[in-house]
Amino acid sequence: MECTVSWTGALGTRSGMGFVAETGSGHTIAMDGAPDAAKPENGGQNLAPRPMETVLAGTGGCTAYDVVLILKRGRHNVQGCSVKLTSERAEVDPKVFTKIHMHFTVSGKGLPAAAVERAIAMSHEKYCSASIMLAKTAEISTSFDLVEA
Asked: Are 79 and 102 contained in the same domain?
């Protein structure tokens, strides 16, 4: 797996904190820093997600992928899955994630709550590389709602 991240600056200039990631699979992700009123040249323009937001989003994608796949493999009729991630970060550098809560909303026909709970646990204990990595610095908790479709 590879990825190249390039500084784009602000609207093509070499000031600002815009970046574009080009993934090995041929996709791009734009990232930008938060505006800095005190030193505008050091801040972004709020044109894209922050790099740490993309880490959080990637983790959500990783675990949601696992949950859907595990339920499908178990021959469950899963029809929807979303996960809302909320987090806290350390106050000082490096501002690592210290707490992450993932709330899943899973829908389907006749989905047993135990199967959903098991899929979420398996993702976090065995399959989701991102959440397992982040668990080295963050306390990760999960919850879920089950919606009959």
From this structure: yes
